[in-house]
Each structure stands twice: as C-alpha cells, then as structure tokens.
C-alpha cells in the first residue's frame, strides 16, 4: 500500500462535489483549483522545509516567511487529495462491506459489496480505484 500516492485531481473534485468532507490533518495533500497552483500539490506541515544547495553542498532549508509565499487560502477553495490509505479509510467509514483491492498487470480493481451485490471499480492507480468506489457510495446515498 502506497501511503503517499494521491488521487487524481479530477476524481478528487468529483468526490468533493459528491459531499466528501475534509477535516484537514498534518501531512494531508491538497491543491488549489482554478489558480496558477492547480497542477501542483501542497502538504500540510508544521514546518516548511526544502532541499537546497549551499556552498556546493546539499542542505535542508527551513523557511519561516517567504516573500512570494501565498498568504492564505480558505479551506473551501482547497481541494483535498486523499492518499490511498485515506481513501480506504473513507470507504470503511461509508460501508460495512468488505473491501478488496486486486492488482493486475496494468490496473487496480477495488471490489465492494453494495446492496448485496459485489461491484468492481477499475483504475490505473489504487487511489483512483478506491476513489471511484467511494464516489459511487457517496452518489448513491
């Protein structure tokens, strides 16, 4: 299980529109749609650190305030990019059914029992397979 893999931005937006709620926690990933930042992703941390080269040597730089930094963004404007583990947890919260993830050569298959019948959601990444299953649950409520 990849704990840092993130869901696609499009599927994350669909989940938000379907009512997936986000209570931000340290190390959550997010993006800011409809801005110059929308193709990137950010992570919530309590310290800003980055890799740099100082006097020819690799160094970790801790940044407190940066002139060009984005001052703030309202949570409602941000788009949560849940990780594989967070998506599986959300699936567990929204259904009492067993959740099975299988991998073939080129796809992941998330199987969830809905209304007594197994349903399979397929995607290129495990995150998106879990995300599609979760989207189906949220849209079906």
Radius of gyration: 18 Å
Anisotropy-based shape: elongated
Q: Tell how many strands the DSSP assignment holds.
A: 8
Order of SSEs: HEEEEEHEEEH
Strand order of the largest sheet: 2-1-5
Q: Classify the secondary structure makeup into a structural class.
A: alpha+beta
Separate helix tally:
3
How helical, in percent, are the residues?
Answer: 10-25%
Total domain units: 1
Q: In what range is the share of β-strand residues?
A: 25-35%
Q: How does the major sheet shape up?
A: 3 strands, antiparallel
Report mean pLDDT, rounded to a whole number: 84
Q: Which residue ranges are poorly predicted, with pLDDT under 50 across at least 5 consecutive positions?
A: none
How far apart the termini lie comes to 28 Å
How does this model look, in words?
The protein is of the alpha+beta class. It has a three-stranded antiparallel beta sheet with strand order 2-1-5, covered by helices on one side. The chain is 24% helix and 28% strand. The relative contact order is 0.21. The protein has one domain. The two termini are 28 Å apart. The mean pLDDT is 84.
Main attributes?
141 residues, three-stranded antiparallel β-sheet, 8 strands
Topology:
Layout: H1 9-17, E1 29-31, E2 42-43, E3 48-54, E4 57-63, E5 79-80, H2 84-94, E6 99-103, E7 108-114, E8 117-123, H3 126-139
Antiparallel strand pairs: 1-2, 1-5, 3-4, 6-7, 7-8
Helix pairs in contact: 1-3, 2-3
